[in-house]
Specification:
By secondary structure, the protein is α+β, with helices and mostly antiparallel strands. The chain is 20% helix and 23% strand. The chain contains five helices and ten strands; from the N terminus they run αββαβααβββαββββ. The structure holds fe (ii) ion.
């Protein structure tokens, strides 16, 4: 039997709730990094890609166009281009459609899915302004335009302050994190796989994240992919 340290013996039972889970972030310049999501110890993968110039020009136009560009669809990789073209009926946005369809293909291949739930949003304000975890297995998130998603490393979070217990206080006041320096953010164009609470074995370790504040006149173009069922 292992000896108990004197420090632990002196602390009343029930006061300490050590977090037995360790979670890390893995980053890489190539899409192959996405496969690291299968490591139990990861809860965020960031593919640090840069968007090509022609794609940047297209998504900037898309974000500020007057038409409603918000939609949610369930699609198969083989149908992704045609379904997206139906939703975004303008050849100017062809590079964007191709890129999104490629992400659908990668996401479905990575997780062995026949189809994925795609959601596109043009955001003029913060959609989920408080830090939270998602109750999904894993979500792909990428911001084509505007400021990107903010997140906290697993070790920076006091999970007791998540959800209801921190509801009346702002993230700054709740004690969820120690300092503003703990808040990290994705970059425009980067592709993130954020493990949620429903990933097998990941309860209590979903990536904590939030939507950033959006400056006036600088909308975000956000694409997410989810398991469809
Ligand atoms: Fe979320």
């Amino acid at each position: 039997m292992n000896a108990v340290s004197p420090e632990l013996m002196s602390i009343p039972q029930g006061v300490i709730e050590p977090d037995p889970k360790f979670r890390k972030v893995v980053t890489g310049k190539q899409p192959v990094v996405l496969a690291d999501i299968y490591e139990e110890s990861t809860n965020l993968i960031i593919w640090q890609r840069q968007l090509p110039k022609e794609l940047v020009a297209g998504v900037n136009d898309l974000a500020v166009s007057r038409r409603d560009r918000n939609f949610s669809v369930v699609l198969k990789p083989s149908d992704a281009r045609s379904v997206m073209h139906e939703e975004i009926d303008n050849p100017r946005f062809g590079y964007f459609v191709d890129d999104a369809a490629e992400l659908v293909d990668m996401f479905c291949y990575l997780f062995g899915l026949d189809e994925a739930g795609l959601r596109l949003r043009v955001l003029h304000h913060s959609m989920c302004p408080k830090f939270h975890v998602d109750h999904v297995p894993c979500r792909l998130v990428t911001t084509y335009c505007g400021v990107a998603t903010e997140w906290l490393a697993h070790e920076s979070v006091d999970r007791k302050k998540l959800g209801l217990s921190g509801a009346e206080k702002s993230d700054q006041e709740s004690g969820l994190y120690q300092t503003e320096r703990d808040i990290q953010e994705l970059a425009r164009g980067e592709v993130a796989l954020m493990k949620g609470e429903k990933w097998p074995g990941n309860k209590g370790a979903g990536l904590v994240h939030r939507s950033p504040a959006v400056a006036a006149g600088e909308p975000r173009l956000l694409l997410t992919l989810d398991f469809s069922s």
